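Example record

Each entry pairs one chain with its bound ligand, adenosine monophosphate.
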Amino acid sequence: MLDIEDYIRIIPDFPKEGIIFKDITPLLASPEASSVCVQQLLELIDGKKIDKVVGVESRGFFFGTLLAQEIGAGFVPVRKAGKLPYQTLKQPYELEYGWDALEIHEDAISKGEKVLVHDDVLATGGTAEAVCSLIEQLGGEVVQCNFIMQLDFLKGKQKLKKYPVASILNY
Ligand code: AMP
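Structure tokens for the complex follow.
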């Protein structure tokens, strides 16, 4: 079977010095590799019941929607502040320098729904932590935080101790 790691392009010093960017565009460009990626993400979920898949702007949208289709779940986008058109719930989160905020539509998740969080990369975990907080504020239950890859040295998993965390690749 093909190895999806071969479809992750490493870009040193992007978007700034010291960051080793993991570029998934070669993966997206290959239908064969994308299909293997979806299958491997599904294996991580291991048959758990999921009502909604929450994808994180913007690279969490690609495989998040594909996963939702495969599972038979609804897809919910979490976006940067000011992008969603309806009434939103907002959660600030810490960036390397300063703060930003993520938003979700306030009717996107119903009380008691089982939710899968998906993004391409788990780095420091601040983004996923904010997303989980939004889901819980709406009464949803985070069943798994699911990533294509984890950057282990940034210890993002420690911020997500309350949740099962799974990824295909570890760096
Ligand atoms: P963090 O909140 O630090 O876990 O960062 C996660 C978010 O930033 C995800 O939405 C990723 O898409 C993006 N990200 C962080 N680090 C990288 C990286 N080295 N390569 C690609 N994307 C990254």
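The pocket of adenosine monophosphate is lined by residues 19-22, 56, 59, 119-127, 156 (CB under 6 Å).
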